[in-house]
Amino acid sequence: MDKNNLPTAFVVFGATGDLFNRKLIPAIFNLYLKNLLPENFILVGFSRKDLSNEEFKKSVKEIIDKNFSLEKINITEDKLNLFLNRLVYIQGDFNHKKDYKKLADFLGHSDKNWQTCANKLFYLATPPKYYKVIFKKIADLKLNVPCGPSGGWTRIAVEKPFGKDLKTAKYLDELLGKLFLEEQIYRVDHYLAKETTQNILAFRFSNSIFEPLWNKDNIESITIRLFEKNGIEGRGDFYDGIGALRDVGQNHLLQLLALFTMEKPEKFKPNFIRKEKGKNSFKIKNF
Question: Scanning 11, 12, 163, 271, which has its CA 20 to 30 A from the CA of 19?
Answer without folding.
Answer: 271
